[in-house]
TrEMBL record:
Short name of any one Pfam family annotated for the protein: Metallophos_2
Keyword Metal-binding: yes
Official protein name in the record: Phosphoesterase
Essential cofactor(s): a divalent metal cation
Start and end residues of each Calcineurin-like phosphoesterase domain: 1-152
Species whose genome carries this gene: Actinoplanes utahensis
Lineage start: Bacteria, Bacillati, Actinomycetota, Actinomycetes, Micromonosporales
Keywords: Metal-binding
GO molecular function, one term: metal ion binding
């Protein structure tokens, strides 16, 4: 099962559209995961139309139209892997401990908000993944997204993808 993980797309405020390499990955993925801050419902419509399966939540910059269609926290089990998706997890310090307490029945937590890629394990085995942002890199050198694979109940091949600089 091929996964694409994205967050903090902020379309159309930070970019007119998602980068072409990301759309290509979305078109071939089995599951697309979006951890909030869409900004406009049009991107949700497009991702729903192009994704085989979309698992998503809303973020702090998402208004009533997106909040009416998306949960604050999304949960799914993919081939035995218990997944949760939330936008905000709080400060980096203490994140693993907080998330272990908040998501005790989760194997993989996908989150966003900071635009900073993150890939760690809590002592309990909970894996925390933040794909960064494909459109708003903030203080990071590149725009990013993640891919991963699930096979027989195991998440593996987690890869952080760096996108080339956008041209105006």
């Amino acid at each position: 099962m091929r996964l694409v993980l994205i967050s903090d797309t902020h379309v159309p405020k930070r970019a007119r559209d998602l980068p072409a390499p990301l759309w290509s990955a979305i078109d071939t993925a089995d599951v697309v995961i979006h951890a909030g801050d869409w900004v406009d419902v049009a991107l949700l419509d497009r991702l729903e139309a192009r994704s085989t399966r979309l698992i998503a939540c809303y973020g702090n910059n998402d208004g009533p139209a997106l909040r009416a269609r998306l949960p604050e926290i999304a949960h799914a089990t993919l081939d035995g892997v218990r997944l949760s998706v939330v936008h905000e997890t709080g400060p980096a310090t203490g994140r693993e401990k907080r998330c272990t307490a908040r998501f005790p029945d989760t194997d993989v937590l996908v989150f966003g908000h900071s635009h900073i890629p993150w890939d760690t394990f809590a002592p309990t085995g909970l894996r925390l993944l933040n794909p960064g942002s494909p459109t708003d890199r903030r203080r990071r050198p590149t725009h990013t997204w993640m891919s991963a694979t699930i096979t027989t109940g195991t998440l593996h091949d987690v890869t952080l993808h760096h996108l080339p600089p956008r041209t105006p």
